[in-house]
Amino acid sequence: MSGPIEFHFDFSSPYSYIAAEVIDGLAEKYGRKVKWRPMLLGVVFQKTGQPLLVNVPLKGEYSLRDFARSARYHGVPFTFPAKFPLSTVSAARAYYWLHGQDCAKAREFARAVFRAYWVDGRDVSDLAVLQDIAAASGADGAALAAGIAAPEIKERLKVETDAALAKGMCGAPYFVVDGEPFWGADRLPQIEKWLQTGGF
Amino acid sequence: MSGPIEFHFDFSSPYSYIAAEVIDGLAEKYGRKVKWRPMLLGVVFQKTGQPLLVNVPLKGEYSLRDFARSARYHGVPFTFPAKFPLSTVSAARAYYWLHGQDCAKAREFARAVFRAYWVDGRDVSDLAVLQDIAAASGADGAALAAGIAAPEIKERLKVETDAALAKGMCGAPYFVVDGEPFWGADRLPQIEKWLQTGGF
Question: Is pTM beyond 0.90 here?
């Protein structure tokens, strides 16, 4: 098979950010495309009944160390933001609004949102920040504000979140390759072996 | 630095089994030794307040798939056992009893316990099974039964479990390399980079 890799993520997930910096290059190496699909991870937390990782005793302290080390491992800049977690509803809706116009610009916007939050510590729950980021992709701020308020864009985010859950998404990032699910940036080596071998 | 790699694990952890099959070879490649330190993971669950992974909605189903695929990824035989979870108190005590006599035999026993459980599905909570496994390392069954009931062996397991927790152990396997903690078989590539570069 040679369909696209499905990449389900939430902009507020540090491992999603790390994976976002790596997945397109990995896919390209094996002639694959990637479908970027932001969703709302809070819905997964509701289903699993799990708290935020950073709030779990022992795991919280470890995870802060692991986020930064995993970023260094992949050669990706990283600074844990002062505001965490934050709402990613507007960022995800803005992605789908842009995606309806131009897939490449939407991807560029998604990368920029991740970096604004996970490198520069900007508050990407703030509409003005999102408008500023989108402006770099040539998007009009007023049109973006109207776009993310449109019923069809709100519906699109719900549909994508439900679709990810229906595929078994239990954490972020969550990849589906030829129907096989992979959870976590730490499964990138397994994804690579899958792409190399056609499944193992 | 070139001290030993500390390897904290519970015999009932599938990712610990996978890591156990890999870590000695990895360490040897970089001229390092490994300290194998079984402990009781239930104590970590008490601290973190986290349920058993296989019982978490969405994550449970995914994890069963991931255990088997991760084993295939590493080229390690794996069959999810009919009896899971089970008590590993006796197995861990037997390890420390053997370790007091002969480190190499204790390591051989630990590997055999992992394989008995994760490949052959044997009930390694059963003293008779442990005696049978230890016999292959030349240990006397009656002496083992007496050994694991000795106060100093019970105390040793408590001390090792507390020591792992004091190092921040939040899940299994948990490695400490030059003071740096790594949680999970999926952190083996980061451990390798650490050993290669002396830290990153």
Answer: yes
